[in-house]
Amino acid sequence: MVRNLLVLGSLKEKNVKTWLVSLLIILVVVATVVLVNWKTTASTPPPEVLAREVTRIDIETGELITLPASEWIEQGEKDGLYKNPKTGKYTTDGIVICESCGKKISLRKSKEGCPKCGKPASSGG
Ligand SMILES: [Zn+2]
Q1: How far is the CA of 112 from the CAs of 45, 63, 85, 115, 116, in angstroms?
Q2: Ligand 1 geometric centre to CA of 115 (Å)
């Protein structure tokens, strides 16, 4: 009985090993495909996008800061706000231009209306 079990065990072990190797190969293939897809879709934007200058507004000071997109990415982002390189705080937001008076307003503050003319500044939504 014990010997039978041992034989059965070694046979099973062989099958398990073959199965594990196959599984490993499948895993490697899947991981490679996922990595390649991730690299091509979610990695850095094309150079022309990175070189484009982007103006953002500091929601605390109202200061306008223009940097190439690549440098904004380097500053880092938190809750949709990029870091202000001068203050080191995550306070710079995208800009919305008021349709009525042309004032540049932060994307967040635009929801409350234009601070200059009081009209709703957000054109989107
Ligand atoms: Zn306005």
Answers
A1: 32, 19, 26, 8, 12
A2: 7
